Amino acid sequence: MRQVIVAGNWKMNASKETVNTLIMGILSGMADVDSNVIVCAPSPYMSQVEALITHSQLHLGAQDLNENASGAFTGEVSADMIKDFGAQYVIVGHSERRSLYGETDEIVASKVQVALDNGLTPLFCIGETLEQREAGSMEAVVSRQIQAVIDRVGIGAFKNIIIAYEPVWAIGTGVTASPQQAQDAHAFIRSMLTQNDASVAQTTPILYGGSMNPGNAAELIGCEDIDGGLIGGASLKAEDFLQICKAG
Ligand code: PEP
Questions:
Q1: Is the pLDDT of residue 242 over 80?
Q2: Which whole number is the average pLDDT over 50-63?
Q3: Whose CA is closest to atom 3 on ligand 1?
Q4: Tens of pLDDT along 204-219?
Q5: Where is the active site (predicted)?
Q6: What is the DSSP track for 92-116?
Q7: Which atom of ligand 1 is nearest to the CA of 211?
Q8: Counting C-beta atoms within 10 Å of the first and last residue's C-beta, which end of the chain has fewer, N or C?
Q9: Considering 67, 103, 128, 166, which one is annotated as catalytic?
């Protein structure tokens, strides 16, 4: 039985005031949440979030990491820095990193490896663009993205990886994949893992991301191979985020 995981990706949206309000709001409703809940904060706010969530059920994640340990990489954040603020999770390979910052499958695989080597759990994002879906290549795209990581860290490492299937056409667009579209993609991803290692495939969480909201979360998370959600826009409102957390 896989536990439901709900992770909020705040992206580049925060201020000291909104972080305070958001975290206090989420904490006030956590008593009846059974899901594993993660908030992925922008780096400058990780210290603030760490302090606010001490002794709570909330977990902290970062939104990206650099594949190097330290050094002359202006603007970048290392695995050690992330851990220093009590984070246990890090988003890797988000489609915005792939499309806006040129992250290739190889770079993403290196980041997954560095996260794992440092005891961080990667929220490893994959997904096809609208053009790729319309060309019928969703399966080929997600296979390629997953294979790059299997080639780097081995299938056994997926015991410590959370996959987030995020069709790019659904991210931030208000267009959600239908439960059937999402379940089909998740079943395909799990079958690919099964071909490599059946027991790892049964335990690896596969989250759905792409305009998940309080209105569609229960149906999506209710699908057999959907183990929770990676939430962008709806993670910025405590009430909406909590409703999604409770849908699991
Ligand atoms: C995301 O960016 O990971 C995401 C799923 O965003 P949204 O929920 O806003 O579509």
A1: yes
A2: 97
A3: 232
A4: 999 999 999 999 999 9
A5: 94, 166
A6: ES-HHHHHHS---HHHHHHHHHHHH
A7: 10
A8: N
A9: 166
pLDDT exceeds 90 at position 1: no
Is 186 a residue of the active site?
no
Here the CATH number for the domain that contains residue 165 is 3.20.20.70
Query: By residue range, what is the domain housing residue 147?
Result: 5-246
Q: Which ranges of 57-178 does DSSP label H, i.e. alpha helix?
A: 79-84, 95-100, 105-117, 130-134, 138-153
Q: How many domains does the chain have?
A: 1
> Which pTM value belongs to this model?
0.97
**Residue 14 near residue 8, CB atoms below 8 Å:** no
pLDDT tens, position by position, 148-168: 999 999 999 999 999 999 999
Place of tokens 């209710």: 222
Tell me the percentage of the chain whose pLDDT exceeds 90: 99
How many C-beta neighbours within 10 Å does residue 57 have? 15
Judged by phi (left if over 0) then psi (alpha if -120 to 50, else beta), residue 98 lies in alpha
Q: Please say if 96 is a catalytic residue.
A: no
One-letter identity of residue 59: H
